[in-house]
Amino acid sequence: KMSSSNSPCAACKFLRRKCTQQECVFAPYFPPDQPQKFENVHKVFGRSNVAKLLNELNATQREDAANSLAYEAEYRLRDPVYGCVGLISILQHKLKQVQDDLLNAKKDLATYIGPQAMLPMLQHSGYIQQHPNNPS
Amino acid sequence: KMSSSNSPCAACKFLRRKCTQQECVFAPYFPPDQPQKFENVHKVFGRSNVAKLLNELNATQREDAANSLAYEAEYRLRDPVYGCVGLISILQHKLKQVQDDLLNAKKDLATYIGPQAMLPMLQHSGYIQQHPNNPS
């Protein structure tokens, strides 16, 4: 951290302003050697929205927030139509597919070892807690 | 659509400006009866970023873009630290878990019907193309 203590953070460098490391809300999460990370969140969310969001969190949560914003921003710039919602859709589809495959494998297995083949699936694979609103 | 043709869209209403339905980039995707949808994207991304993003897309892609932005914004307001990246993480974890369960079920099945039990999984369940460029 010594080497970067005199350089402005990526945000202040991009915004061409003086960086007071102690007070700058961006400095800990947008180091000068990752300029793209700040440029992405600035482009997608806007500097002031990012600063506002970070300031409203307590210090221990800010790193995760900065990183999740950077992740969303990167996806949105790569895919302006769907952003990371496209990934959510792919993951949901794939999960459904693998759950169906598992159900079929368990049914096949049940023909050899009996109905207890279905039990571990119901207990461990999220079938029971999958739908919090489902009473069963 | 007749009934809302004279009301400003949710964006223009929120911004207290006149809405020229023909030219307003928000009007088709932020109808006056869904004020929260615009308020959310405005709060998270900023009005001008949303307008810029929609304007850079062709008209056929704008509805999906507006809806995916609204989805991301809603998640970010509900969970300021992780936003919808939290959901991605949950889905990735659950997918890994169900894939492991499927692998075990197929291994069990292979003890009864032989190694061909493993083949459909490798072909259909994404084990082969699973991680093209996994960021984690």
SSE pattern of chain A, N- to C-terminal? HHHHHH
> How would you describe the oligomerization state of the chains in this entry?
homodimer
Task: Give the overall pLDDT of chain A as a whole number.
Answer: 86
Question: Tell me about the biggest sheet of chain A?
Answer: none
Total strand segments of chain A = 0
Shape category of chain A: elongated
Number of helices of chain A: 6
Unreliable stretches of chain A (pLDDT < 50, length at least 5) are 128-136
Distance between the termini of chain A: 54 Å
The radius of gyration of chain A is: 23 Å
Specify the structural class of chain A. mainly alpha
Biggest interface goes to: A-B, 46 and 47 residues
How much of the sequence lies in strands of chain A comes to under 5%
- DSSP helix fraction of chain A: 55-70%
Describe it:
The structure is a homodimer of 136-residue chains. Chain A is mostly helical. Chain A contains six helices and no strands. In chain A, α2 (35-44) packs across α4 (59-78) and α3 (47-56) runs antiparallel to α4. The model of chain A is unreliable at 128-136 (pLDDT under 50).
